[in-house]
Design brief:
This protein has about 325 residues and is an alpha/beta fold. The chain has 12 helices and 12 strands. The chain starts with a helix and ends with a strand.
Amino acid sequence: MTPFARLTLRKLLLASASAALAGSALAADPIKIGIANFGDHPQLNDAVTGFKKGMAASGYVEGKDVVYELSHTNFDTTLLPQMIAKLQASKPKLIYTLTTPVSQVAKKALAGSGIPVVFGVVTDPVAAKLTPSWDKGDTGITGASDLQDMGAVMQFAHKLVPASKSFGMPYNPGEANDVALLDKVKAAGAANGYSVVAVGVDNANDIQQRITSFKGKADVIYNPTSNLLQPATPAVSAAARQIGVPLMGADPEPVHKGLVVAAVAVKFEKVGENAGQIAARILKGEDPRNIAPSRPTLADHETVVSRKALKAFGMTETPAVAACNCVID
């Protein structure tokens, strides 16, 4: 082999080795996932934690295989398009959206972008027009619902307030989740011995007035997974105590704080975990249209009762509640 040929071969080998190293480095780069949250809230934060857990269980380890870019709007709906646009500009492989309002904006904004959306903490994706049915996803979008078993909630309400016959629910008529849940509450009421009394609340400043309007009409009040009402739980609790009507909820955190008497709640970390597993399937090549939105099973719920709140509401611990092994101080 001539010196020239040896030099040429050496250059080719070096170029080949460099290309291989570059390809290896490129393959090792973690993929980017955008997380579009509505605001800083314990339940939503749990759903983020669960999402990462679900992704890790599916082979996507944070910092190694995947990195996350998290953003939220502090519950300001006017900032949602801006948040989605900012995440889109970072060119993620997928965006995880939390709550119905965020997911609805993302679906519209990212249509045709090639960036799939996986939603979480959405009560009814069909009513919210995120998916065409509970049996399939839509083009570029599917996810995990936080749909609660309202029958289980009402069955426990009977244990908590044995003589109760009327079930009060405040809701935001402008929020698709709330409206869809109210329909399910009415259906569950008919099957569980409750008449349902609903009161619309579309402004946080009206909470005290609207909640106190349940006086004489509801034996127990249920605070739902509403983007308006959940952050305002202290105000809902104060109004419910004022009229002496026990308050149940969809979030265990206010129960631990003594604001809410009891919660039969979906574990939001599990909702996030379900979403993470769905996201991993999409990243591995599945079409979101072929992935049905998930919904929590009974095993994905937890029950908790607060002795502090029982006392604050002038209630006593019934034998049925004492037997649940779910009462905290």
